[in-house]
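Recap for those who missed Tuesday's class. We walked through two folding examples back to back. For each one, the amino acid string is listed first and its predicted structure tokens come directly after. Nothing is annotated here on purpose, so try labeling regions yourself before you check the end of the notes.
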Amino acid sequence: MHNEPLAYRMRPRTIDEVVGQKDVIGPSTALYKMIKSGHVPSMLLYGDPGIGKTSIAHAIAGTSNLPFIALNATTSGKKDVESVVTEARMTGKVLLFLDEIHRFNKLQQDALLPHVESGSIVLIGATTENPFHDVNPAIRSRCGEIKQLKRLTQDDIIELLEKALSDEKRGLGREKIRITKEQVARIAEGTNGDARKALTMLESIVIASDEEDGEYLVDDAIIEQMIKRVGVFGDKRGSHFFNLLSALQKSVRGSDVNAAMYYLAHLLENGDLTAVTRRLLVMAYEDIGLANPAVGGHVLAACQSADRLGLPEARIPLAQAVAEMCLSEKSNSAYRAIDAATAAINKGQVGDIPAHLRDTHYAGSAELGHGGYKYPHDTPIGSFGGWADQDYLPKELKKAEFYKPVVAGEEKKFAGIYEKLKDFRKK
């Protein structure tokens, strides 16, 4: 076995060896053609860990034959950046790969940006965070390409694993390994599109396998043990975490219980219970709303139970809350109404509070013209309770209508009452 990890040894040497990411750097893309013709633009590569950001940077360096320097923004200081600038002055142009670029500090930027702008330094920045949220605008403006990489498909991972098994110089081709296509496919399936994890797992599985006459015998049980150790991808409060929250809410809104359970499980495996319960409470009122008002209380009770129980038991009440929200009637009318009212205020659509609605609990209010309020409870109307015919909005907004009912679930009843009251006002 080699000293360097298999994932390190199997990095592509040129862009033609890159596995996956065909939409970003495949032979038909503009980026591929530019690099092949000798022009390498500064760029940002954005995506989850293990999907090829570092590999693509190395492949571009190998294809372009530019002097290559790799730094990590979390550990590099101003002196490291100055060394890159010195190298660029001496050689004419260098390719700088900067990992974790969203952690780039101002001193590093000030030393580097003019040289990136002049083209003496070609910058390839890699980040797991959304560059439009977390990368400094000064950096973004100097990167002509911002490429979001996707997680590799199972077929991509299988291709990568088969290359590693057959490559005699960099891979495991010199070793005698008895492994089936089904086992390779299971490794690919269990690593969730992460090339680095897949290669690391393959190497670990081979090392952990029994030997017989100099041949490694890969066993299904060892594969399953290793897959359980892989875990989920994404970290707390990273871009992927917020994408999971967004996917959970949209799955509930779309009434897909299976998808919602998948994203809930993923979020809980990341361990941030507080963020999950906050989002579930918002969803109860934003997406279920008046169609099933009882859901708000149910979700609150589930969240309080989850907080008291803690993980892993917290998953049980939360799963019940998510299932109920998925299968409940849905309305966003109240949420849209408050947003419409807020938008009107921000546009300057305001007016004076009608005199009969103003505070009269002090001496002298009558002298100011306050008063004349009709107490609705004094005039019952059918089984509704009380209602009085008087204006409540400022006269400038008398005809404004922010609430538009959704005829679903319990809101059918509210919608009927709303329309009847509108008729009363017209009369």
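Example two. Treat it independently of the first, because the proteins are unrelated.
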Amino acid sequence: MRLITLALTVLLLLIQYPLWLGKGGWLRVKEFEAQVDAAHKKNAELLARNAKLDSEVRDLKDGTGAVEERARYELSMIKQNEIFIQIVGKGQAAAPVPLAPKPAAADAPVP
């Protein structure tokens, strides 16, 4: 009787091995599920970034507002007959802002 119990226990362990540690075992399935979740998260981040870039490209192609905004903030340009005012808080030093060069022709558009 003791031999039969031991044999059945060994068979049970042999059957359980592929279930836990085998090629399609539960541990490997959990690993793959974690990888799939990470890939879904990364894809969602990339889709959000692509949507933002797409809207920016569309805005740059269609409207002049984005071009004008970039010229103001990145290149410190101002329109003709426009006054530039910079407000500096206490304890902050005002950094000199380079002005855009004047256009050669008087009728040339300035962003």
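Answers for example two:
The mean pLDDT is 80.
DSSP finds three helices and no strands in the chain.
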